[in-house]
């Protein structure tokens, strides 16, 4: 079976730039909804002094992840913010102190078996760093009697243009990646692991291949450089040949898929106990003078990143994430989330293109790796035709953006599919 894919320009100008040390913003705005699932409730009050790594938000819900202070300072406010998905949620605002200290709770967790390993991942606040933001411990907490997982797939594709934060993690922390893979294999009893990586990332491939020579059951799987190589379904098929059925989870085909930065984080967390309080982000775009990668505390605001970006012009568009699947941001106060892997700045026609009528060229259909019908989906969404949207399987759309990218009429096909899924979830109410 050959899956459709598209070729994208890479534009990965920051690939060979070592990651800059952590930015120290004067304040952070930490959303209590950093993950898929139930948002956290703040456990601190305005005026409290908090230290780096201290828990500031928790939830008893099964699908959630604790939120930690990313800097040391004073809680200046607990307020409502609009998050990247356009939803209102609570955020804890911390103003920095001159002295940055780790909280006393930050220490390596005691991990001896599967259960304590999963508990540690839960306490760490880890969510899928590839962008999905699903709490990782939930994914790891499968019942081995019901789901026999024989393959760990480390997703190191990073197939979107511009973004190099995963690539920098691979070359700067390749030994830590192998360490994280070994921990997952050991505690979850998974016999083999593949690092799925696009073949053009030759430096990372040779470093990892060398390290894998000494390891049993871990190997590097070179994949074609195409889009959307990093989509879970595509990755599973290209690495193992297994087909994930509609609505199925990777465990239904014996696979656990983890983003490479998440795996490195697990290794580091078990060694040092520092929870998920910072992100490595790529800062790039067509008006950035010097593309770079930098560690930023979770909650760092866009206005601080703009200072760092050294822009040539005022941007027409700012994107958190990649140009294919990221979200446009309009508020300079928008904070970096746990899931943010890039902040991109653009100006010009590409940033402002308006849709024109469909010319029925069929390119969008040929671009879709899931064989969906983007034009039909668009029409069904415009007519709010719920039954047709279901029949056309809008729910399996990955919102990869490939259809929108190839469309000469610049129609917002992927965006409409996203809205259509929300429409279905709301039972047809807009
Ligand atoms: S956004 Fe959806 S419909 Fe468009 S190419 Fe991707 S999977 Fe297919
Ligand atoms: S690619 Fe654009 S113009 Fe071509 S059929 Fe699809 S929606 Fe219409």
Give the amount of beta strand, in percent.
Answer: 15-25%
Mean pLDDT: 94
* Main sheet: strand order: 13-12-16-14-15
3D shape:
globular
Please give the CATH class of the domain at 114-272: Alpha Beta
Tally of individual helices: 14
H/E series: EEEEEEEHHEHHEHEHEHEEHEEEHHHHHH
Distance between the termini: 38 Å
Rg over CA atoms? 21 Å
Low-confidence stretches: none
Reported for the largest beta sheet, the result is: 5 strands, mixed
CATH 4th-level superfamily of the domain at 114-272? NADH-ubiquinone oxidoreductase 51kDa subunit
Fold and architecture overview:
- It is a single chain.
- The chain has 430 residues and is of the alpha/beta class.
- The chain has 14 helices and 16 strands.
- The chain has helices at residues 114-124, 136-140, 165-172, 174-188, 202-212, 232-240, 260-272, 302-309, 349-352, 363-367, 374-382, 386-391, 402-406, 413-425, and strands at residues 27-31, 41-42, 49-50, 55-58, 67-68, 73-82, 88-96, 151-155, 192-198, 218-223, 255-259, 278-284, 292-297, 317-320, 327-329, 342-346.
- The strands form four sheets. It has a five-stranded mixed sheet with strand order 13-12-16-14-15, with helices on both faces.
- Helix 4 packs across helix 7 (260-272).
- The longest helix is centred in the middle third of the chain and has 15 residues, at 174-188.
- It is globular and about 60 Å long.
- The two termini are 38 Å apart.
- The mean pLDDT is 94.
- The protein binds iron/sulfur cluster (SF4) (2 copies).
- One iron/sulfur cluster (SF4) binds at residues 358-364, 374-375, 406-409, 411, 413.
């Amino acid at each position: 079976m050959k899956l459709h894919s598209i070729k994208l320009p890479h534009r990965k100008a920051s690939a060979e730039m070592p990651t800059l040390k952590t930015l120290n913003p004067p304040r952070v705005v930490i959303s209590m909804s950093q993950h898929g699932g139930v948002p956290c409730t703040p456990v601190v009050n305005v005026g409290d002094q908090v230290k780096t790594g201290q828990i500031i938000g928790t939830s008893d819900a099964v699908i959630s992840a604790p939120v930690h202070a990313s800097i040391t300072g004073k809680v200046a406010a607990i307020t409502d913010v609009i998050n990247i998905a356009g939803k209102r949620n609570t955020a804890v605002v911390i103003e920095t102190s001159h002295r940055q200290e780790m909280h006393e709770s930050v220490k390596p967790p005691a991990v001896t078996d599967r259960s304590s390993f999963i508990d540690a991942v839960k306490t760490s606040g880890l969510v899928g760093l590839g962008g999905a933001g699903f709490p990782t411990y939930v994914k790891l907490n499968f019942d081995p009697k019901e789901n026999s997982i024989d393959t760990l797939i480390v997703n190191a594709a990073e197939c979107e243009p511009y973004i190099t934060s995963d690539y920098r993690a691979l070359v700067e922390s390749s030994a830590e990646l192998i360490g994280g893979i070994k921990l997952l294999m050991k505690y979850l009893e998974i016999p083999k692991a593949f690092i799925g990586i696009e073949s053009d990332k030759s430096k990372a491939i040779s470093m990892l291949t060398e390290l894998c020579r000494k390891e049993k059951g871990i190997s590097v799987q070179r994949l074609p450089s195409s889009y959307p190589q990093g989509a879970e379904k595509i990755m599973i098929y290209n690495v193992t040949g297994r087909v994930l059925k509609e609505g199925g989870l990777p465990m239904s085909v014996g696979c656990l898929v983890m983003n490479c930065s998440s795996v490195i984080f697990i290794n580091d967390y078990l060694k040092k106990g520092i929870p998920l309080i910072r992100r490595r982000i790529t800062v790039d775009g067509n008006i950035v003078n010097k593309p770079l990668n930098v560690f930023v505390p979770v909650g760092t605001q866009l206005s601080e990143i703009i200072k760092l970006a050294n822009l040539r012009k005022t941007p027409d568009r700012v994107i958190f994430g990649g140009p294919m699947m990221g979200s446009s941001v309009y508020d300079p106060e928008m904070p970096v989330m746990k899931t943010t892997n890039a902040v991109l700045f653009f100006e010009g026609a590409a940033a402002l293109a308006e849709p024109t009528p469909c010319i029925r060229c069929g390119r969008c259909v040929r671009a879709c790796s899931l064989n969906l019908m983007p034009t039909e989906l668009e029409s069904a969404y415009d007519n709010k035709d719920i039954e047709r949207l279901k029949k056309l399987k809008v729910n399996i759309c990955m919102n990869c953006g490939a259809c929108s990218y190839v469309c000469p009429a610049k129609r917002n096909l992927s965006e409409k599919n996203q809205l259509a899924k929300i429409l279905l979830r709301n039972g047809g109410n807009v």
